[in-house]
Every structure is written in C-alpha cells, then in structure tokens.
Specification:
The complex is a heterodimer of chains A (496) and B (274).
Chain A: H1 9-15, H2 18-26, H3 29-34, H4 45-48, H5 61-70, H6 78-81, H7 89-97, H8 101-111, H9 115-121, H10 133-138, H11 145-159, E1 174-178, H12 182-193, E2 197-201, H13 210-213, H14 222-234, E3 238-240, H15 251-256, E4 261-264, E5 270-271, E6 284-286, H16 287-296, E7 313-317, H17 321-332, E8 337-342, H18 353-361, E9 365-368, E10 370-377, E11 383-396, E12 402-406, E13 412-415, E14 418-421, E15 425-426, H19 430-434, E16 461-463, H20 466-469, H21 474-495
Parallel strand pairs in A: 1-2, 1-4, 2-3, 4-16, 6-14, 7-8, 7-14, 8-9
Antiparallel strand pairs in A: 5-15, 10-11, 11-12, 11-13
Chain B: E1 2-9, E2 14-20, H1 22-27, E3 33-37, E4 44-53, E5 58-64, H2 68-75, E6 81-82, E7 84-89, E8 100-106, H3 110-122, E9 126-133, H4 142-148, E10 151-156, E11 163-164, H5 167-177, E12 182-186, H6 189-201, E13 206-209, E14 225-228, E15 231-234, H7 235-238, E16 241-243, H8 249-256, H9 260-273
Helix pairs in contact in B: 3-4, 5-6, 6-8
Classes of the chains: A alpha/beta (496), B alpha/beta (274).
C-alpha cells in the first residue's frame, strides 16, 4: 500500500482540541464498540436493475452520526495509513459526530479534490477500513469510513454552500496537466491551492476522464463529478477540452508558451483483447468502448446520435470493477442474461466487494472458473456463440493468486449476441510517442521517481495514475496526483 | 467550438467546409484526421483533413452525407459552430522520394488523397492520380489534384466523365505502361480491397488509408480495430495507413456493417423529422 510520509504531529494537536476531547468522553468506548456497523440504504435490486439511478441512496444524518459514534478517535489513527491521499479520517468523522457536516466536508477537501467520488468508488475494504482499529484489533466490522465520506461530501453539495479551499497567493508558476481523470484533477487541486496557474488539457469533449466515460451513472452520477470539477474551476483551474497534448500541441510548444512543468495523467486508454479466434466479430467490444458509448455518448438515449448494440444474451469477460460496471449496464439496458465469465474463482475477483454483492443481488450470472476460447458469428459476421472452457485453480502465480488451469474436454458453447471484453488496459501511447526521450517500462508505462513522480530524463515532466501504474484505482491515481503536485512545486521552486 | 468560415457544395451529397482550427492547421500533415462532434447529443466521427491554411488557421474537411451526423455537419452554415474538433490524430503519411507513385482515390476518398498527392509530389515523386466515382458529380477536387499530379486519369462507372470503367482499370493501364514504385489507395473499403488485389498481382507496395468506426479516436476504445498481417491494430493510433496487402479487408467490411441497422433506422427518423 502506498503511504505518504508526512509529519503527523498536526494530527495529535487537532485531536487535543477541546471539543474533540469532550466528544470522546461523551460516550464510553464500550458503548461505541457495541454498536453495529451501519448498512448503506440502497434501491431495491429489481427496481434498480431497470433504471440508471444510483444504487446506494446515501446515509441520513441520524445514521451518519450513529456510525461516526463508533469511531474511537484513536491516539494512533491507523486508518490514515490505509488512505493513499492521507485524509485526516478521525477529524472528519468527529465533525460528523458533533453534527458539523460542513466542517467534515472541509476536512476532506484539505487533502482530497474529489471526496464525493472517493466515498463512492474507493475500495475502502482494502484501504482505510482494512487498517481501522476495529478490523485490526477488535476483529469487528470497521467504521464505515467510505459511507461517512460520501455523506459529508453529499451534504455539502446538497446544502449549496460548497466551500472553496484556501488558495495561496499567485506564485507565478504555470503548470500543465495532461488528462482530466482522477490523477489530473487531484494534482490540479493541490497545485491551485499552492498558488500555481494550472491548465488541464483533455483529449475528449468532457472533463473527468474515467469518472465520466468509464464509471456508470448508477455508481457515480455525472452531476457529482461536475460539482467537484466546478470547485476546481472556482479555485482558478483552467480546462481545455478537445486538446490532445502530443498532437494538437507538443510538450515543447507548451514550454514555449510558458509552462514550467507538466503532469502526465493520460490514463490507461488502450484496451487489451485476448487474441482468441473470432474476437473481431461485430458485437464484441472492449469495456472501454461499451461504457464510453453508454456513459459518455449516452448511446442508450434515443435522442443521442451514438448507437450501441443492445444485447439479449450478454457475456462480459473479466472480474474487475470495469467488468462489473459493464455487466450491470447491460442488465439495465434490458439484457435477458447478463453473465460474467471469469477464469479464476469468485475469491480472486479484483472488483470491489460491494460491486460484486450488488451484481449478485441484481441477478448477474457469475460463471467463474470459465474462460472463453473462441467466438462464432452468424451470416452477418455478428457474434452468436462463445466456446468456453472450464478451469480449475492450480499453484499460485507471480501475483500470489492461484493460477487458473484449463480442464481438458470441458468446453461448451453459450449463445451470446453481445460480448464485452474487460481484461485490462494498457497505457495510452500518445504522450510517450511524442516524447521519445521518456524512459518507459516494457509495459509502456512511464518510469518515475516514487516520491516525486518526476520522470527520468525529462525533469519538467511528472506522471501519475494509470500511465505509471498500468491500471489501478481512482484513489491511487489521486494519491499520485498529490505527490506529483508537491514534487512539481519543489521542482519549479528549485529551478527559478 | 470551431466556427465554419466557408462552405462549398460539391455535389448533391458532398460538401466542403472550412473550419477555424488554428492549432490543428499548424500541426497537421498528410494522412492526419480529426474527430468531429456536432451538438451536445452528436456522435464523434472521424474525418480526414483534406487541406489546411496555416496563415488563416483553418482546416478543410470534405463530408459526404451518409448518416445522421454527416448530414448534420453538411447542414451547418457559414458562421455556425462545430461543437468539437479534435486532432490532428493518427500517424501521418510516410513520404519519401520513391520514384513513381500511383494514387487512386474513389468518391469522397479523393479528399484525404489530396494532401498525400501534394506531399508525394513535393518530395520529388512522379505522381499519377486515378480519380474514380459512380458518375461525374462524384469526381471532386479535380483541379487541386491536377495541380499536384503529373497525370490524372478519371474513371466513372457510367462513363459520364473521363473513361468508363472501374478505378482498377485506370490503375492497371498505368501499371502496364510504366514502372510504379508505390501505390496509395483511399476510398470505399471494397474499392481498396480490389486495388490491393491488383497491385499485389504486380508486386507493387501499396498503402491504404482506412476510415473505420471510431468513438474516441485516441486509442481508448478499440472500435476501429482491424487485422493487419494476422495482428490486431487500431486504425486511430496505429494508422490510418497500413500496408494494403496485409489488411484483412473482408473482416473490415464486416466490422463496418456493425451498426448498419441502427444507423439506417436513425437516418430514416432523422430525415422524417427534418
């Protein structure tokens, strides 16, 4: 896990503030730990699988305060160690406990440019909630940090009094951010707070990257993302859409236009395919294509021009979050059968636990330990069948997960008319191609210094998110953005 | 937003529009394309840049009305704004002096052929262009192509203009007459397939510039994938130009039909509501 090394004395000082002391004493620890973890209210699975409204409906104030009371406000808040952007978790939770919800939101915004997003899409179960005192020491369900984060961010948004973080006075540095996904937005927020003149360049016509084209409305409404983007605009961040750095202008052009440093957060925009026979038949597409058509281009709306194939028997290949998003989207668009075909078992699935649970509730069929090996098409070249081979788990592989091994003579065929291939992505090659001096790994990711995110050989270029990691999470990308912002500031200051 | 500053109707179905896009005009090279989106609800469509004027900061696109989006674009007037124009995208044409280059353009494919003809001529090649269309009205940009070519052969299916016959007949006449070092073909997929079969017979290296279905145009979605020499390639970032003899044209033709029904329905209702 990525942990940002920071001075933690401020945590102790904040913890000693009178109201925090009082609040801690107001309820005995025994009473706090005896409470059950709150469960997130959600739409009924049958109803929600026919609409695109958000699945989770959010905590009410009373539930949020009740859950906040479970937090023990530990002397040594290990939860923060699990957060890639080092949110002061006890501080925001205690603000909720004393009903200062706007105060809680303010704490979140000190370190996170996108709290309403993280509260929804972070895999808390392997981050802050995994290192929560309840999980580690009490062996109980952790404080629902993610639900509380979402609550505070939503409360602020819905209250209409959205706070804009303090901005340091203009320091005269001009910074370009390439790509407006979570890494880019996070870096933009921090750099703007530091007093830099920040411009974000986005290749698509919408700002938000994967938050807009990838993650569906039912998991992360676009309106939530837009509020966070507007916050950045209010902080003075400028956005240019339809601008491909490397094509529309080169890094050198932008240097000549006065940019002092660059943060490359161009994402992992190159979908992987399996390379099996028949994979190029029509009706077989990458999850990037499927989700982009539906989410960004709104293809399922009759008044939008972009088409999308509406499948009856839909197979989604893969077991990650993107696979879950795709299969649940297909269900919502009216599929009779929405199937996950995954070569390992349910236990190895990389998707967030909550997404898998939601998918099960919605009637998604999970065909684990199954692997597609060939596609067949009808007379028009449209996919009609997939041949699947059964698998069993063998010895652990390099990732520590047990390797799936094919079972001989176990092949069978399934009727499908839409296949969404969601087996990972590779880094987008556009920026590396335009900056040949960048040092790259053999997987096409940019090599950076781990602490500063500075690229090797090109000192004014920093990078983070999937272009460095090759396919990770929103929050890890945001953590990179934060680190890079600090690295960039140190770099530009040392240069002048 | 990019403003339309000039518009010329080339035929019933084909329109030439000049759009303000100063950065693209400065950067574009032969072979590059842009992705255009019309209106909030529009789709993203790839169009090859036909000409550019760096001093005016404009690019010229030639658009054929084939579906809803291209029709919407053709209907825009001078002064109207195109919501998104992004580019230049793709790899530019590999241009060098190889000797004699035979450039074959079919229908609206003549538009993206023009910058390649100009670049090949500029590099010192002898350029012979074969322009083909169903009838006279489909032969576009003839004057511009003539300016950059040593010879121009016109072929029409119905013989209303130039010679009667297919593009391949015009090409074969040249190939039999003189040494051709490189062929370039742009047009409908079927036409490129047959051009490729012809030049393969004569062992002439051939480049085809492809126009497939795309969504983002930057490598993200894979809608444009084709098979070249047994390997999957993305037209948007690996292309749009490939070794024609290695392209699986049959698969590409099949993939181009992927949204045929949806598109036909959408076009029908668009025309009904117009």
């Amino acid at each position: 896990m990525e942990i940002m090394k920071e001075d933690t004395t401020y945590l102790q000082e904040l913890r000693k503030i009178a109201w925090r002391e009082e609040l801690r004493k107001s309820i005995p620890a025994k009473e706090r730990t005896a409470k059950e973890r709150v469960s997130m209210p959600s739409q009924d699975p049958i109803i929600r699988s026919t609409n695109s409204d958000e699945v989770n409906t959010g905590l009410m104030s009373e539930l949020a305060i009740g859950e906040a009371q479970r937090c023990l406000d530990c002397v040594n808040p290990t939860c923060i160690d699990g957060c890639p952007v080092n949110i002061n978790i006890p501080s925001f939770i205690k603000h909720i406990e004393k009903s200062d919800f706007l105060g809680a939101a303010k704490v979140l915004k000190e370190t996170s440019a996108l709290p309403a997003v993280c509260g929804r899409v972070c895999p808390q179960e392997v981050q802050c909630e995994a290192t929560c005192f309840y999980t580690v020491k009490l062996k109980k369900a952790p404080v629902a940090i993610g639900h509380l984060e979402r609550f505070a961010a939503d409360f602020e948004r819905e209250s209409g009094s959205v706070s804009v973080p303090k901005i340091a006075s203009d320091n005269g540095y001009k910074i370009a951010i390439i790509g407006s996904g979570p890494a880019g937005l996070s870096a933009a927020g921090d750099l703007a707070k530091m007093g830099c003149d920040v411009t974000v360049f986005e290749a698509l016509h919408e700002i938000g990257g994967v938050l807009k084209y990838g993650i569906p409305e039912f998991r992360l409404p676009n309106s939530v993302v837009d509020v966070e983007i507007n916050s950045l605009k209010q902080m003075g961040v400028k956005f240019f859409t339809n601008f491909v750095v490397g094509s529309t202008a080169s890094i050198q052009d932008l240097r000549d236009e006065g940019f002092d440093a660059f943060f490359v957060s161009s994402g992992a925009g190159l979908p992987n395919f399996m390379g099996i026979p028949g994979e190029n038949y029509s009706g077989i597409m990458s999850s990037n294509e499927y989700l982009t058509r539906v989410n960004l281009m709104k293809a399922a709306h009759a008044d939008y021009d972009t088409p999308v194939y509406i499948g009856k028997n839909v197979a989604v290949i893969g077991g990650g979050n993107t696979a879950m998003d795709s299969v649940r989207t297909a269900k919502r668009l009216g599929a009779e059968r929405s199937m996950i075909i995954y070569r390992r078992s349910m236990d190895e699935m990389p998707a967030r636990v909550e997404e898998i649970e939601h998918a099960v509730e919605e009637g998604i069929e999970f065909m684990c330990l199954n692997n597609p090996i060939e596609y067949f098409a009808n007379e028009n070249g449209h996919v009609s069948k997939v041949r699947v081979q059964k698998m069993e788990l063998g010895e652990p592989d390099a990732s520590g997960r047990r390797r799936p091994v094919p079972i001989e003579n176990s092949e069978y065929e399934l009727d499908v008319d839409l296949v969404v291939v969601s087996v990972g992505v590779s880094p987008n090659p556009l920026i590396p191609k335009s900056l040949p001096e960048l040092e790259m790994t053999r997987w096409g990711t940019i090599v950076v210094d781990e602490d500063t995110m500075q690229a090797k050989n090109v000192p004014d270029v920093f990078a983070g998110g999937d272009i460095v990691r090759g396919g990770a999470t929103v929050i890890l990308a945001m953590g990179d953005g934060r680190k890079a912002a600090q690295g960039i500031l140190n770099y530009v200051q040392s240069k002048k | 937003m990019s403003k339309i500053i000039n518009k010329e109707i080339l035929s019933d179905k084909v329109v030439k529009i000049e759009i303000e896009a100063p950065r693209i005009a400065q950067k574009r090279k032969a072979g590059h394309f842009v992705i255009v989106k019309i209106g909030e609800k529009g789709e993203r469509i790839p169009l090859t840049i036909s000409q550019a004027d760096e001093s005016k900061g404009t690019i010229t696109l030639i658009v054929q009305k084939v579906g809803v989006s291209s029709h919407k674009l053709c209907d825009l007037a001078v002064g109207d704004e195109v919501s998104s124009v992004v580019g230049p995208l793709g790899q530019s044409t590999h241009v060098e002096n190889v000797g004699t280059v035979l450039c074959a353009g079919g229908g609206v494919g003549i538009a993206p052929l023009l910058p390649i003809v100009e670049a090949m001529k500029e590099a010192g090649n002898k350029v012979i262009s074969v322009l083909a269309g169903r009838s006279q009205e489909f032969i576009i940009l003839e004057d511009e192509i003539r300016k950059a070519s040593d010879e121009v052969i016109i072929m029409t299916d119905d013989g209303t203009y130039g010679n009667k016959g297919l593009v391949t007949e015009g090409m074969e006449e040249v190939i039999q007459r003189e040494k051709v070092n490189l062929a370039v073909t742009i047009g409908p997929a079927v036409m490129m397939k047959f051009c490729s079969i012809l030049t393969k017979k004569y062992n002439i290296p051939t480049v085809a510039s492809l126009n497939t279905v795309m969504v983002d145009g930057s490598g993200m979605c894979g809608a444009c994938r084709i098979t070249v020499d047994g390997e999957t390639k993305f037209v948007c970032v690996d292309g749009p130009e490939f070794d024609a003899h290695q392209i699986d044209f049959d698969e590409m033709l099949m993939r181009l039909r992927a949204y045929k029904d949806e598109e036909a329905d959408a076009y029908q209702s668009f025309m009904n509501n117009k």
